[in-house]
Design goal:
The complex is a heterodimer of chains A (450) and B (223). With 450 residues, chain A is an alpha/beta fold. Chain A contains 17 helices and eight strands. Chain A has a four-stranded mixed β-sheet, covered by helices on one side. In chain A, strands 1-4 form a two-stranded antiparallel ribbon. A two-stranded antiparallel ribbon of chain A has the order 2-3. The radius of gyration of chain A is 29 Å and the shape is elongated. The chains are: A alpha/beta (450), B mainly alpha (223).
Chain lengths: 450, 223
Amino acid sequence: MSTADVEHTGLQLGGRWRRWPAQRWLDGQVGALAGYCENASIGWRLAPLALLWSLFVDFGSRGRPWAGDWVMAVTWAGLPLVFVAVVAAGVAAYDAGQSQTGERAGVVDSYPGRAREVLRVWVSATAPFVLVHLLTVASVMVALVADGAPRGQLVAPLAQQLAVLGLATALGTLVGVVCGPRLGAFVALVLAAFLVYWRGYVVMSEAPPTKITAATTELVGFKLSEPLVAVQVVAAAVWVVAALALVVFSVPDPQGQRRPRAAAIVLAVSVVGATGWLTPQVTKGWIDPVPTAVPRRCTGAQVQVCLYVGHDRERAQVASFAARVRATAARQGLADLFPTRIIERRPSGPAAGQLWLLPDDLSRARVADDTLASVMLPGQYCAQLAGDPITGALTTTAGAFIGMSVSAQQTVKNLAEGRSSSQWPMSPQRLRDYVEGARTCDLRAAVGGR
Amino acid sequence: MTSTAARPRRRARGWPGLGARLNPIQSWAAVHAGRTAILVWIAAAPVVVLTAPSTLLPLLNPTHGGQVPTALLLPLLGAGGVAFAVDHQTPLQLTQATRRVLPWQLGWIAVCLVPAIALAALAAVQSRQITVGAAERNLLLVTASTLAAATVLPAGLATIPALGYDMLCLTFAADLIILGLPTPWWAVALERRSSPAQLLVAVALLGLAATLHSHHQARRAGA
């Protein structure tokens, strides 16, 4: 189908066709492709709903946990793709199937056999959802700028997300051509749901070509590894080429569908299998710590709180809790038991508490008191506690220590609430023994010689 | 060349006396994508058997480790088949018996639900994590959504709203349920057991959607 045909179709569909200078400028390939994208895909009808869904998932979650955390926010923006990419696959299958059966006679007069035409079908099905995704990411970035979040990584997460989207529509295009528009759309939805969920979202330790890094936990101080994401994107591109090549090298069958040639199937399966096996091997550990990322901004008089800038909104709560604990402890003569500095994610000796914000803390936009209480207590990272309590690998002493740490945390919460020692689950002396033992990882001393 | 008058008249197929009744049924069935639906149901059966025992992680908070039975989401496959089975492929040339399209259409939907109900039951039995009632409740809900969507979307894409609903539950409700918090009213599809009230509401929703769909099809058929 030529460029002129597309324009002629526009003339027929649109009624009067007046050629303005801007339209003349659009003559040629770009204009033809734009017109094709606009007319050839049912995706434009679903795009507004997909955008609403994406914004709802990104902004409607409990407490906007990504606020201020650039890398987490941009990767979180990939979460709606778990559904949107699946819809895009179904739409691509429907479009490709219809382009084959002649049901889009006004737009695509016959099945596009040449590679360029197959590309057009794929691009036109992908375009609405790429636009939706870019708008979603842009709105998340506007929110980040409004939060005052320091600028972070953008290209790698975005490339990963767009690669998965393109892969889903390529799969849909192939399925639509083979199965037809009706059955193909449904089959593509099911297949894409499997690929995107089981081989894209749930996979944690590696990055297969379908991987979406939709971070639901903090990523301050981390970034996606650009070389490994590049490997993943290249592998996804190979899969896209393989799927579209199968469409190009297909022949019509007696039922009116098209079947890829046997040689093309063998070649495509080999390439897809090889890249599908190799990519996860190469991309293990695709999240890198940022070397210079030490929380430098420390505030507070009684207790210094050093958090990453991305977690500024938690700062006041952490500082207030620590100050209250120390104030009550001072009245009991226990002030020396608690840290004067709290540093995010950096073990720093007995005088400093280590804070690691958990997904729940971020999801609720309020750090749990249990998390804060554990910051004030040493000993969580003692080597003796590395066993699995369920399998019984821990020693009796370590088990007793874990049990006692629950009482100690409750005591710290009571301190924060300003309660007197008669209401604590541990006596002041017992608390002192516990903390002093835990500081040196002498668990036996911490649990009172048991 | 033989004349039409000389050709012996073929007897109506079917049982004696039922031919006049069966022919409208056959003609009704012929204009729907029945073969595609049967293909979907047959292909779905092994998928259900294989995947029903598995579980899914909640999307928003996968670190919780608790999981959602896949069997709760599998009725979507049966509903996809129903969407094809009730989709008019060609304009209806209505016979006298099928003039009243609405009862025909509702009856047809009821017939087409049978394989989907069987698939949902199979998912529940195979899974052993949910009750048959819960699977059937979810089937009724997603079929209602699919039939309503089929009035504006092609049959192949009509399951998108149901898929969206399942994703919504998996994103915003699954981790709450795993943590032992009460199920939000709108995420009823994640409950492993069903109550009579839930089934009643699901049946009512399906009835509403089926009527909407039937009116739409009747209008398309020009009846």
